[in-house]
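Example 3.2
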Amino acid sequence: MNVRKKHEKLKTASQAEILRSHQRDIDFVKHLRERVIDVLQILGKRKGLLPFIHSDIPFKLIYFFFTSGMGNQTLGEEYTGIVQANLEAHKVPSLFARVLAVILECFGERALLKLLKRLEVSVNDSCSQLTPAAVTFFNSFISKMYTLIPILILAHKGLFYIFGQYYSLGRRIARIDYAKVYGHRPNDTISWGLRLLGIATLAQCLLKFWQSRNDDDQSQRCLPIDEKHGKPMCQLCLEKMPTTATPCGHLFCWFCLTDWLNAKPQCPLCREHVLPSRIVHVMNL
């Protein structure tokens, strides 16, 4: 992987080129996963390796190890004529920076959510020496972080659409951007379209943030109350205690919410897109 000499000014890759490069890499990773699954199916080994092939992450790690990890361009970078570069230092990123960027892109958000989950369990442990006020404070903080982390990641993507620097938070932390080294540069009109998309994305983040600040009070007011015990009930079955929250802040019982999301990945109340892996078990209701 080569970049210009230090005394020459590097040409920053455009948003469109970076997006096209990553999309081509994602398509190849999916193609690689499908071929591996076909081979395992023929060998009769698919069931034993089901946890391994269930996600794209193992295949991303393998793909980026043999490309970025070994100092080579990815297929997407080759196709668009861009290379990974530390534009501020005018040099090729170190091996450590490239590996760090890949790890953060694959596991960063998941690791943060797992860390919050462990903190939540520790805070609500019966053996905890925290005061009730401290427990309430930490539970409120953790609940807000569950909501804010996806919003921050989305906001960073909006900033990328507008300014064209640092495709992901992982690459920003590792200080890895992209330089254009050969090939035809796309028309500026494409970049303006992406800038408009960035503005819309940031507006969406502001609306999500505003909604998250009001959802706690609204969800408590809207929850049906068990008249006999004076406790809130699941808004779907109206029978069980709500123990599970969506990223948008609405509460349901675990079984109702998981059944709903398996059929339709949307919040039953506000229709916000929700992945089953993003729901959170609430322990302090």
